[in-house]
Amino acid sequence: MRLKFLAAIALAATLYSCDDTTTGIGDFVADADEITASAQTFEATTKTLKYTDLNPDGVFSRTSNAYLGKFTDPDFGTYTADFITQINCTEDFEFPETMQDIVSTTLVLYYSSFYGDSLAPMRVRVDMLNQAIDDTGEDLSLYYTSYNPENFYNKNEAPLAEQDYAARNNLWTDAEVDSIKSNNVNKYYPPLMIDLDKARKERGEETMSAFLKRKYQENKNYFKDAYSFIHNVIPGFYIHNTSGEGSILYIGDIWLQTKVSYLVERPSTGKVDSLVYTYIPFAATNEVYMSTRLNNSGGNLERLAAETHNTYLKTPAGLCTEVKLPLKEMYEALGNDTLNSVSMSFTKYKNVSENSANNPYKMGTPQNLLLIRKSEVKDFFEQKKTYDSKTSFLGTYSSTTNSYSFSQLNRLISQIFSDMRTKEEPAEGWDEYNTLVLIPVKTETDSQGNTIGLSHDLEVNSAKLVGGEDGEKIKMEVIYTKPKFNK
């Protein structure tokens, strides 16, 4: 018994050294003769939720990346992605003073990765928006993945452009692709380049290049900044697939590239009469609006969410896992004690199913999970919060243990216990306090590697976790101390 007691004391001391903000009802006394350190295990229950169970609008997708494509998975069903983007115009922009013509205009989509069949034939369509979207930050519905693009363009009008493509462009050899990727910072593939003049020219209409030139000649102030450009020239583009399936592009940069001819001085004569060409790009940046629309076929997700002997994670905008903590039981047992450590882990199955084991296009594993109270999810993402290890926690996938681990949950639970001291029973029942969710997220880091932001994971990833309402319970390991005061 004495050996067990000393081991508990040593463990408690170790945990204190790791968490110097431990809170609780009691006070920790350093003298080993005045404390009792103990360990106890509780059980949490999990189940699968669809993202639309958290919010019928889907997920908040305010990121700097876009996604394009369609893919059908035997387990999760059909998933599609398309997006709206505006184009920025730098302040006080001007074309060359001696510009003669805008020769061509191309929409360039750069992607560093993709999911699915690299050779799947796809067709992309580009439509010009029929109204400017003023992203003032007040209408957050613009950034949810279920927005309706038909509110911003006329689907019955002829497209601005339509073009066939595959994720892997066979015009480039493997060696050339490797060379291109190794020679750019973001490791981009040869980009998807969409001619914005061709379709209009074939219909006998004003081309995009002629349209831009005319607008510039009408009033150069249309190009003086992003607001003027969006409201007077190009409100934005809706970019989506019209046929084909098999791949999803992860797009990191979007450029509207113009090829311009202009006159320069000929050295031999000193006259401005030599015609030269240059490319002038306009970029989609964080200063203008961009949002991805995602759609998952409902039948498969409904079926998976109904399983009770395990849970699932599926991104983007698919499935997450609800975690119900046994807080009432813990409060009755430890409500007057100091919680030094509360930890739990979630184990991942090797494969989602037999289908996934044999699927040539294996989904990735979510690398980071946010554990947060269910009632706080909406505000967390809309307000661009990051985890604080007090009310929200970040767990990273470990391939060694094949699990996601969370510690320092004592900070959250101790605060809840403190709140409970003034209440006989939560007004809305214990679900107000004990229901958390696991959500796959992407992390944003600074130059020192510190996490400074979180956003929903919008890449194609999945995991099947041990748990479920009728499955194995999730162990919560609690280390706590019982102070003894001298009389």
From TrEMBL:
InterPro entries in the record: DUF4270
Protein name per the record: DUF4270 domain-containing protein
Originating species: Bacteroides mediterraneensis
